[in-house]
Amino acid sequence: MKVVIIGAVAAGMSAASKLKRNLKDQAEITVYEKGGEVSYGACGIPFYISGRIRDGKDLTARTAEEFAEIGIPIRTFHEVLSVDTDRKTVLVRNLKTGEEFTDTYDRLVIGSGAAVRRFPPFDKACENLFEIRNVADGTRVRKALEKESACHVVIVGAGFIGLEVAEACRSWKKKVTVVELADQVLPAFDREVGQALREELERNGVEVRTGCRVTELKSENGRITAAVIETEDGRTQELPADIVINSAGIAPVTGFIQTAEKAKNGAILVNERMETSVPDVYAAGDCSVMRSAVTGEYTYAPLGTNANKQGRIIGDVLAGIEPKPFKLIGSSALRLFGLDAAKVGVSEREAAAAGMDYKAHTITGNSYASYYGTEKLNIKVIYDRATRKILGAEAWGQGTVVPRANYYAIAISAGLTVDEMGFMDLCYSPPFSGVWDAALIASNTAK
Asked: Is Protein transport tagged as a keyword (predicted)?
């Protein structure tokens, strides 16, 4: 079986590695990667920028040479231009030589990821305009921050990457402004979490401008000098800018295939086996979209955790092995200065948008036994009004925050009600929780 894989990061290399372990030499695998980096942890890039991770090489799990040694050749700087699913061929361009050639496949795996959206005014190159999708991008930003002359940083977009990069830039003692089009930071979370994150940013010297759009980047001699923003009421303001980082969303890279069914954002629709609408074509990671286990609707969840699981599923399916079940819950977390936040399942805003008949309940509790520590956290539970099944949860605060959200991810996957969750037999010791864990209290007090 000849397998062509497009993309050599999380999804693609997870699929390749699993398939190679399953079939060994029975599978002929060729991987095409448009860039020069493979199998790296993109989620670690903000921490590399901050200096917490000293060397960008530490983010690479395995090099192209190491993959080649185990029988998985990767052709870097090779871009797949188009796919002919009738003839089962791919048209490939060597980006170094310009040569174009055709390759054939029995099975095609698409793990091409997503790219930063370059809408105006971010569609023109400037020396000090950056985006962050790979380690090389992180290195460029880090080198720019090392310059004492770079004082003002403008970050466009207040999603996960934008917020983490804001903290990284503050670690370099820069003046940082975050500009977000939505009316809150981290729009994927509910408003109260966004407000807590905003307050944490401002406590740590980050200026936050929500409900604002960047309309112009003023420049001199190829360098941006200011970002012009427009507020909701139509007023404009210039923000001084020595560094501008575009983190205002991503777009799936799928233009090379026209026959597969796609979502509105261009992501390829897949089922629980990562099969597309085209026979023998599979997709995984940031270029794909699958149904949520909570809503049943297609839900775009571009995270490395999902990409790795989806790639492993493909590696099993291609080998004729029944894959382990994967339920897309929509789990994500963030540490921002001294505040942790996590979300699993649907937020209240998402539940309302989906037309769910739900109830929401929020508590503030202790991270540990009250006599052991003073850290507080908040837990918000979303559950079905009639069945009381848990649909989602958000946790934010100090101390042990993310593990509490993970309890709820397991509860959602298992189909538990708030009543069942409230009496879960969890571990207890004062350094970890009160005798009634905050997650149990949140569930038990849900009426």
From this structure: no
Q: How many residues does the chain have?
A: 447
| Single-letter amino acid code for the residue at 231 | T
SS3 133: coil
Do 383 and 347 touch, CB atoms closer than 8 A? no
d(CA 233, CA 183): 13
Q: Where are the beta strands (DSSP E) in 95-240?
A: 100-104, 107-110, 114-116, 129-131, 152-156, 175-180, 206-210, 212-220, 223-231, 236-240
The Cα 43–Cα 52 span in angstroms is 13
Q: What is the rounded distance in angstroms from the CA atom of residue 251 to the CA atom of residue 13?
A: 21
* CA distances to 153, 232, 243, 387 from 148, in Å: 12, 34, 12, 59
Write phi, then psi, for 332 (nearest 5 degrees).
Answer: -155, 155
Mean pLDDT, range 176-195, rounded to an integer = 97
User: Which pLDDT does position 352 carry in this prediction?
Assistant: 97
For residue 55, name the pLDDT band (cuts at 50, 70, 90): very high
pTM more than 0.85: yes
Q: How far apart are CA 326 and CA 330, in angstroms?
A: 12
pLDDT surpassing 90 at residue 232: no
Sign of the CA dihedral running 279, 283, 288, 290: positive
d(CA 137, CA 130) in angstroms, rounded, equals 7
Q: What is the mean pLDDT of residues 17-27?
A: 97
- Average of pLDDT values for 214-222? 96
Place of tokens 């009381």: 388
| Mean pLDDT computed over 209-215 | 97
CA end-to-end span of the chain: 56
3-class SS of residue 176: strand
Instruction: Answer for the pair 392, 414: CB distance below 8 angstroms, yes or no.
Output: no
Closest to 443 in 3D by CA, of 407, 425, 418? 418
The answer, yes or no, to whether residue 413 has pLDDT greater than 90, is yes
Q: How many CB atoms lie within 10 A of CB 374?
A: 11
Per-residue model confidence as pLDDT tens digits over 65-95: 999 999 999 999 999 999 999 999 999 999 9
Cα–Cα distance between 245 and 11 in angstroms, integer? 26
Q: Is the peptide bond before 121 cis (omega within 30 degrees of 0)?
A: yes
The CB-based long-range contact list for 219-227 (8 Å cut-off, 24+ gap) reads 219/126, 222/126, 222/127, 223/126, 223/127, 223/128, 224/126, 224/128, 224/129, 227/154, 227/156, 227/179
